[in-house]
Amino acid sequence: xxxxxxxIVVVGVVxxxxxxxxxxxxxxxxxxHRVLGWLKDGAEAIVTFxxxxxx
Length: 55
Known about the structure:
Shape: flat
Helix content: over 70%
Oligomer: single chain
Radius of gyration: 18 Å
């Protein structure tokens, strides 16, 4: 991908994210909360795996 096209895609994604943050802040916050919950669950699963592995 050329650098010009990459820059256009990044600006487009940022603009889309800002649009949704401004027009639908409640839904955007709920989405971020869900994603952070998935990340937390994944991190806890990895920690549990290593604790079990080395126990």
